[in-house]
Amino acid sequence: MKREYRVRKNDEFPDIMNYKRFYSCPSFTLYIKPRKEDHARIGISAGKKLGKAHIRNKVKRQVRMMCTEIYDFDEKFDSIILVRQNYLKENYQNNKKCLETLYKKVKI
After folding, report:
1. What is the pTM assigned to this prediction?
2. Alpha-carbon gap, residue 43 to 37, rounded angstroms
3. Can you tell me the distance from the alpha carbon of 55 to that of 68, in angstroms, rounded to the nearest whole number?
4. Is 17 helix (H, G, I), strand (E, B) or coil?
5. What is the pLDDT of residue 65?
6. Which domains, from first to last, does the chain contain?
7. Exposed, middle or buried, 5 (CB in 10 Å: 0-12/13-18/19+)?
8. How confident is the model at residue 73, as a pLDDT?
């Protein structure tokens, strides 16, 4: 995923989450905030409850890969993906389907 498609600043994460428009499934919670710029951005957050640093980094790499396959980046919104503990119980394909359904809910 390109750098311009990522939410990178720590100040932007609470702004998007405090907008309080979100969708959730057992593996993810997706927060959305409209944006005036010309493309979408994504931020990924994995809490310490998921495991040690190497596990969290692996999870974030997988979610980043899912996002490049699912997202169009043509929409005008920022999104934050919170990874839940149930992510580790499911396999990659089921988690990807779950993220796709959340993305389809956002587009509607």
Report:
1. 0.90
2. 16
3. 20
4. helix
5. 94
6. 3-107 (3.30.230.10)
7. middle
8. 85
CB 44 within 8 A of CB 27: no
Give bridge partners of residue 39 from the DSSP assignment: none
Give the pLDDT of residue 96: 95
Are the C-beta atoms of 40 and 70 separated by less than 8 Å?
A: no
Asked if 102 and 28 count as a contact pair (C-beta separation under 8 A), the reply is: yes
Segment-wise mean pLDDT, segments of 10 residues, the chain, 108 residues: 88 92 93 89 94 95 93 89 94 95 85
Query: What's residue 108's pLDDT?
Result: 64
Question: Can you tell me the distance from the alpha carbon of 78 to that of 37, in angstroms, rounded to the nearest whole number?
Answer: 10
Q: Which residue has the tokens 């169009």?
A: 72
Residue 23: strand, helix, or coil? strand
Angle at 58 between CA 55 and CA 64, to 5 degrees: 140
What pairs with residue 33 in β-bridges? 78
